[in-house]
Amino acid sequence: MKRRLVEQGGVTLMLSMPREWTKKHRLKKGDEVEILEKDNNLLVAAEKVARTEATELDITNLSSLINFGLSALYVKGVDELTLTSQNPELIQKLPQKPLNQFIGFEIIEQSKNRLVTKDLSGMQHVEFQPMLRRVFLLLQNMYDELAKGIENHETNFDHIVSMDLNVNRFCFLCLRMLNKKGYEDFKHTQTMFLLVTFLEQIGDQLKEFADYITTRKVVFSDKEQKDFRRVVHLFIEYQSLFFKFNVEKAVKIDSSYRKFHNEFETLLDHTKSPSHVRALLYFDSLAKITAELLRTQLMMVL
Description:
By secondary structure, this protein is an alpha+beta fold. It has helices at 19-24, 66-76, 88-93, 128-151, 158-181, 189-216, 222-243, 247-269, 274-301, and strands spanning 6-8, 12-14, 33-38, 41-46, 54-58, 80-84, 105-110, 114-119. The chain has 3 domains: 6-46; 54-119, Translation Initiation Factor IF3 (2-Layer Sandwich); 128-301, Phosphate transport system protein phou homolog 2, domain 2 (Methane Monooxygenase Hydroxylase, Chain G, domain 1, Up-down Bundle), CATH 1.20.58. It is built from 9 helices and 8 strands. Strands 5-6-8-7 form a 4-stranded mixed sheet, with no helix packed on it. The chain has a two-stranded antiparallel ribbon with strand order 1-2. Strand 7 and strand 8 form a beta hairpin. The longest helix is centred in the last third of the chain and has 28 residues, at 189-216. It starts with 5 loop residues before the first strand and ends with a helix.
């Protein structure tokens, strides 16, 4: 990009900074940047100063929203949380959930009615793409474990339920990084945020599905097993597309989803048990989220 030099005071030449770059690095009037001279080039670098954002919150009346509220603050980018409550039990439960989902956070102080947790890792050297690849890998593992168990007529999937914890951890970290630093192509930050949110939803759906068929002891027919494999294959195909986008392959994946969705009604028509119908609805829900991932990514690649 090109910028025009502006003379100020008859002596100094001024240069404006690109707005997207200043937004990405959260620079404002009065902030300092590093200017490095290299041959005939000037390199401008955002100053690497740790800015700690601290929040104090009374969780006494948050009730069922405690986990959602604290997760929202972590994703938002808060670096230090001071949590208080008139109910000591609420404070005692925090280390198990949701604080165990906040990568980089450690409890630095805890008493009967108060807990302080802080990000001790910093994120200067954490790269976004490896974290995102980890999310895809974890979801693929959950899909594979479910598919194998279903084909073996297993009815206990408690280990799948626990696997979602790591999906949450890395999804929350990715969302936090996007809020703190933005995406590498900053104009696509909001779209990437939405994509990661969809991935987190897939993890939640897989966990709920596993929990439901464990509780209800649902066993699937050969035809239903094959249909679930189609859902798994759809996700795996999209996973490879995500990191190396190809229009022709995208159209093929979208067509596969539409075909599956249209045939799904027939599958339900042959199912009489209400509990079985509800279990099968997860098939379509999971496939739909994968389709939404694909269609949302078009905003970044076309």
